[in-house]
Design goal:
There is one protein chain. The chain is α+β, with helices and mostly antiparallel strands. The chain has one domain. It is 31% helix and 18% strand. Helix 1 crosses helix 3.
Length: 152
């Protein structure tokens, strides 16, 4: 992640700045592909589509529009794996949106959604409050371990 403080074209200051995230899209495409192939129907770890989609819907066509291909360099004989469209001009917009939504969910630490009323993990806010409560209550001097940690 890097911060952008000024507009690249005019040099004008951006109030508050912007955070620029660089994503490894191959990692998230692999992860989404694994989630789609998962057969877990009763718990977290699967990827589900709304039941209103039909087999010939544009959404499902675009979700299936890319596949992983092994490419071999003829000179060096090295191979690399690359995600490519299945057909030459296949639309991949919905696939790309799902990939970026998965990346955003991981950045926000949302690893699974549960039905309303059923919570497996405590919300992050409560967990953070409890973890840092020793400092707010003035108990930090009693703590024996190294409580100063480098972030990132």
């Amino acid at each position: 992640m890097s911060n952008i403080e000024r507009l690249p074209t005019s040099g004008a200051v951006i109030p508050g700045g912007l955070a620029l995230w660089t994503l490894d899209t191959n990692y998230f495409k692999d992860k989404l592909s694994r989630l789609i192939k998962s057969t877990s129907m009763d718990g977290p770890g699967g990827w589900f589509v709304h039941e209103g989609f039909t087999k010939d819907s544009d959404y499902l066509r675009q979700i299936c529009s890319e596949h992983k291909v092994i490419i071999r360099d003829k000179k060096s004989r090295r191979t690399r794996v690359e995600w490519q469209p299945v057909t030459r001009h296949a639309a991949t917009h919905f696939w790309d949106c799902e990939v970026y939504a998965l990346a955003a969910a991981e950045m926000l630490r949302v690893f699974s959604l549960q039905p309303e009323g059923k919570m497996i993990h405590q919300p992050i806010e409560r967990r953070t409050e409890r973890r840092n409560s020793w400092f707010r209550q003035g108990q930090w001097m009693e703590r024996k371990s190294n409580w100063i940690r480098k972030n990132g």
